[in-house]
Amino acid sequence: xxxxxxxxxxxxxGAPYDLYASGDDVKKYKAALYIxxxxxxxxxRSESVEIRKKGVFSHGxxxxxIKSAGAHIYSEGNIVYANSxxxxxxxxxxxxxxxxxPREVTLSAFYGKGLFQGKKFDFYxxxxxxxxxxxx
Length: 136
What we know:
By secondary structure, the chain is mainly beta. Helix content is about 15%, strand content about 40%. It is built from two helices and eight strands. It has helices at about 1-10, 60-70; strands at about 30-35, 40-45, 50-55, 80, 85-90, 95-110, 115-125, 130-135. Strands 4-5-8-6-7 form a five-stranded antiparallel β-sheet, with no helix packed on it. It has a three-stranded antiparallel β-sheet with strand order 1-2-3, covered by helices on one side. Strand 1 (about 30-35) and strand 2 (about 40-45) form a beta hairpin.
């Protein structure tokens, strides 16, 4: 199903996202993805650009679009949850994972038990490994 495929790709954009119904006000966001609003096309829309596609936008296409709209990407290609107090990241593949925060922070790792300071962090994760950090 195309809707499921699009939601799956959305999960790997490396940034948190919110889900809304089609009539909701999304003006506070820099970019929006509309899943099948007209029945057969998905739509990426920012203040100045709209892209329509029959089929699923890849997570790379969505990431590039939202970056061009000025949104922050925490870790390309990985699953990320972030708010003002926590950042959680799940690695899609085994290997080096880069996490970039919007500003200088101190992160406290819940599972790995460590403190990290900076804005850009490199870790080695196993596939599907999740790490939760508190922003101090």
